[in-house]
Specification:
single chain; alpha+beta; elongated; 6-stranded mixed sheet; 24 strands; 748 residues; 22 helices
């Protein structure tokens, strides 16, 4: 029974307050078919909205089975709309992308009913309303009359106490309208049916009671026919199903239906009534609807998916291209310039009668060590080498192959010192280029040196780093590791005389021996250290002593350049060259540091440009994606209203969008990951030829360590995009899910 007392509804607007209902007092009982008549704006639909709880009253009381609905929260109203109150709308309000069967079974699946039972009952109901054979058709493929029949079947399947019909024939022709009213009459026994209409003939031909509204007030209430029966025999039979009775099921059924206790025999198949229990958040229902929604909304979901995939892929492609190209250039600068090293190229004047050059240098070094921001002060030597020979266990090589090289410096080999034995590998600016062997050990019995891979290959083995210049030379059996710990002879004079080829014996007696401790990488173009032989100062000084003492070179000190070298504590705080020059009357130079500053400025500028491009692409692609998402959600607001009107909870509606977003998210992860992998590998392939172009010796060198796949950044961007997707989808969808059913239905 429904008891309405002093019901009032006022809509407040800026212009004025609009009274939709005022002083409504009515009571409805099972078996009554009430027609509510009135002109447009008289409050008919508002009246139904008050009874169903899709809109809130301003004042008054509505009692439902003697229970005050004013105390009900939204969750309770949704339960009532799923179990006690059924809707039939003028616009049908079916879920257009679901099938007839799915639309009808929605309320049962929501409450956790068995799928097979739900389908069995739905088939029976569809046959009853004249739609047998249409189960697999989409709602959008039906005529108006067929849609309204589906709406009736969806309403009856919950076996409601109350059916609210808002202009159920308003969009139908007269013949179809008559058929729909006959169906309502068929299901009227045992229920309260309240039908809003403006058609007086339909009202008086079908209703048992007619209530007339005008300006929100009840102006007449007349009984025109005897009430319908108060039993739902037809519906009870339709909503029953056959099941085999087991001990467990018998206990369960007796608890639900005590009146069946004597009728349930073990092992027998018995027809039992459908029992439903409202579940506020049914994950089975949510996942099922979400999957179906995603499948049926494939076009819009693809637009969302590909807008994200294309946007992310562009960002990642720009990142990997710009980062690797700029990183390669900066990397070349870093390994080609020891910009931390300042050289004193002119030690100034001093009293040569009282002070030797070495004494003056020692005094100057001691003074420079006291200066602010000076870390190390040491001697630095450079010496161009006359001849080099390499001895291994089984072979002896002369450095005279004449093979054309990729990088400059091979034909002018020179000794370059590292500094005193206090210099560690961390101080060496090429430490990351030692890809075979080790940094020299200052305590080794035989002085150790570093030599470049290109010098080793081109001058001793006659192999060019450029495949086109190799003239068929094979590199299959070359292992650079085999040359570590082998002897390198450096000669201060020409050993080769006439046609006589030098050998290990002649070289060993005429040249100074070093041990190769490590090999520097030269697997790319543009490096300038391939002709350098790196050793500690002690190793070079032993070589000079050897020339003086053993070879008798009286002018050995004129063969090399000697400088005082300084390094700062902080490379980003340069030494004040002008002040030091003025203080000590010397000349300090470091032209590479100016290039370093210019390079860092360029790197910073490119970084800002990169961020600008990145932000632009992100905003553009993000705006496109968000607009598509918001458009999609706006299109589904009416659908949200329909779910609310059949009792789906806010949480379940939100979870639908979560599940649908997950469907899109994992596809974004999968497709974007695969697409980025293809783009990265393609770019690396092009990068190897365009930037490096030394691919024929990859079996010797392995992969090029300069290239970066930007994996961490890519994973971060992809995960960030997925988070962005969830935010862009879930914020508006959660807002829509929280809308009142009436607002959602009106918005749609």
């Amino acid at each position: 029974m429904i008891d309405i007392r002093d019901l009032e509804k006022i809509y407040h607007t800026k212009e004025r307050d609009y009274v939709a209902l005022k002083d409504v007092n009515l009571t409805f009982e099972p078996g009554e078919f009430i027609a509510v008549l009135g002109e447009s704006g008289s409050g008919k639909t508002t009246f139904l909205n008050m009874i169903s709880g899709v809109d809130t009253k301003t004042s008054g009381t509505i009692l439902f089975n003697e229970e005050n609905t004013g105390k009900w929260k939204d969750k309770k109203w949704r339960e009532i709309r799923n179990t006690e109150i059924g809707f039939i709308f003028q616009r049908f309000n079916l879920i257009e992308h679901l099938t007839v069967m799915e639309n009808v079974t929605l309320p049962l699946i929501l409450t956790g009913s068995d799928d097979k039972v739900a389908i069995e009952i739905a088939r029976r109901l569809l046959k009853e309303v004249g739609l047998e054979g249409t189960e697999d058709k989409l709602a959008s493929e039906l005529s108006g009359g067929q849609r309204q029949r589906v709406a009736i079947a969806r309403t009856i399947i919950i076996n409601p106490t109350v059916i609210l019909a808002d202009e159920p024939t308003g969009a139908l022709d007269s013949t179809t309208a008559k058929e729909i009213l006959e169906l309502l009459q068929h299901f009227a026994p045992g229920r309260i049916i309240i039908m809003v209409t403006h058609d007086e003939d339909l009202a008086y031909d079908n209703a048992t009671r007619v209530v007339r509204l005008h300006d929100g007030k009840v102006i007449s209430d007349e009984i025109i026919k005897e009430k319908n029966a108060d039993k739902r025999l037809t519906t009870d039979d339709l909503l029953s199903y056959n099941t085999k009775i087991t001990r467990r099921k018998r206990r369960h059924l007796v608890k639900q239906f005590p009146e069946l206790e004597g009728q349930l025999e073990l092992g027998e198949t018995t027809k039992i009534p459908l029992h439903r229990k409202y579940i506020a958040n049914n994950p089975v229902f949510t996942r099922m609807i979400a999957r179906e929604n995603y499948r049926q909304k494939r076009a819009i979901n693809r637009r969302i998916l590909w807008s994200f995939v294309i946007g992310i892929s562009l960002l990642l492609l720009v990142n990997i291209v710009m980062k690797n190209i700029t990183a390669y250039n900066f990397h070349l600068f870093d390994i080609n310039n020891d910009y931390e090293q300042y050289l004193v190229t002119d030690i100034g004047t001093y009293d040569t009668e009282t002070t030797t050059e070495d004494e003056h240098i020692a005094s100057l070094m001691a003074s420079l060590e006291t200066e602010e921001n000076v870390d190390d002060v040491y001697l630095y030597y450079e010496h161009y080498v006359q001849e080099l020979y390499l001895a291994t266990t089984n072979n002896f090589y002369s450095s005279d192959s004449g093979e054309r090289t990729i990088n400059a410096g091979v034909y002018s080999p020179r000794i370059t010192t590292l500094g005193p034995d206090t210099i560690t590998e961390e101080d060496f600016y090429l430490r990351d280029q030692i890809f075979i062997g080790r940094f020299p050990n200052p305590d080794a019995t035989t002085p150790e040196v570093l030599i470049s891979s290109e010098y080793l290959l081109s001058q001793f083995l006659g192999i060019s780093l450029n495949e086109a210049l190799n003239d068929g030379a094979s590199t299959d059996n070359i292992r650079l590791e085999a040359f570590v710990d082998k002897t390198l002879f450096i000669c201060g004079e020409t050993v080769k005389l006439g046609d006589t080829e030098p050998n290990l014996t002649t070289v060993d007696g005429s040249c100074f021996a070093y041990t190769i401790s490590g090999i520097l990488n030269s697997y790319y173009q543009g490096i300038n250290y391939v002709g350098n032989i790196y050793m500690f100062n002690d190793g070079f000084e032993l070589y000079v002593e050897y020339l003086k003492d053993d070879k008798g070179f009286t002018r050995a000190d004129e063969y090399y350049d000697k400088y005082i070298a300084l390094t700062p504590d902080n490379v980003n705080e340069p030494l004040s060259i002008s002040e030091l020059n003025a203080t000590y009357d010397i000349t300090i130079e470091n032209p590479e540091y100016r290039q370093y500053q210019e390079t860092r400025d360029l790197e910073l500028m490119l970084e800002y440009m990169y961020y600008a491009i990145f932000a632009s692409l992100f905003v553009i692609s993000g705006t496109v994606a968000v607009n598509i998402v918001i458009s999609s959600i706006h299109e589904r607001i009416r659908e949200i209203g329909i779910y609310s009107s059949i009792g789906v909870s806010k949480k379940s509606i939100r979870n639908m969008f979560v599940f649908e977003t997950v469907e899109t998210a994992w596809r974004i992860l999968l497709i974007t990951g695969a697409l980025y992998g293809i783009l990265a590998l393609t770019f690396q392939y092009a990068y190897r030829f365009v930037v490096v172009n030394l691919t024929n010796l990859e079996p010797i060198f392995g992969y090029n360590p300069v290239f970066s796949y930007e994996t961490t950044f890519s994973i971060t961007v992809i995960i960030g995009a997925v988070i962005f997707l969830f935010v862009s989808v879930l914020l508006p969808s959660f807002k829509a899910a929280n809308m009142r059913a009436i607002d959602a239905l009106r918005s749609g």
